[in-house]
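Exercise: predict the fold of this chain.
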Amino acid sequence: MSAVQAISPPPDTQAGGQAGLAHKCLYYMSLMREVEERIERKLYRQGKIVGGVYVGRGQEAIPVGSGLLARPEDVLLPSHRDMAVWFIRGAPLGRIFAQYMGRVGGFTNGRDGNMHMGDLKLNIISIISALAATVPVAAGVAMGLRYKGIDGVAFNYFGDGSTSRGTWHEGVNLATVQKLPVLFICNNNQYAYSTPLSGQMACANVADRGPAYGMPAEIVDGNDVLAVHSATARALEHVRSGGGPFLLECKTFRMTGHAAHDAAHYVPAGLFEEWGKLDPIVRLRERMLAEGWADREALDEMHARILKEVDEAVAWAEKSPYPDAATLLDGVYETE
């Protein structure tokens, strides 16, 4: 099996400022959409991926707009809808597909066939299925960074439903009391599985929870990647200056069911169509064309490049073997 290739950087357009940023954002958002389409709508349905499959369709602007501002020393704790942070950190696409297919080439060497993956070399912490449980972990990571004298920030991603769980409040309370360098990023996609926002919290906004802990908060349009990028920059200025944690609420919508098995019949008619008009990828493409930051030919070339990268990555992953059962206990127990 040939060596897996790392994700290529976005095309060099020689453009700076907003135009250059827009090209990077579009590349990573489109890559995330295509990778997840391939995982959920092809490989999963072909029986090559088993178990739950969760995607961030319609929410790509959040991990991209924020993740592009992360420094190498920052630690990222993504949720199950933040695939793009892996791309931004340079994780090989082939290893991501191998992970989902339970192959040796995945980040857990075939021990898992899902998004339960992390890589400390990339400063990415694995997701915990009880989603809010990553919040106290993020506080602990930030405390560890401070203890080691590392000038980094913990980027903690979660959904609106997480903010109604006890571990969320415990973690936020610790972070605010200790003034830890944590950026709390909420993907408010309006649903905690099948429970709408109004059914799981009495306050109007997730951001309203911040002041109760003495933590500043901001609400941003989570379907506008450039707005997310700007809001993240403001939040990081507060966190990096020693001001303690910051809560960024990104308003968006989950353009699919909770997972691949969920047809989302509980979503009122018309909501998908309404939010579909605010698709973050379509919005950015249209703005880039309107502003003269790109032409259709260049955007089509970018899309073709992404399809080629994904095809090659899937082919690599499918050549990766399944783990040998004889290695089942390797790395589980201390042997020395």
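Check your answer against the key: Residues 17 and 70 are 18 Å apart (CA to CA).
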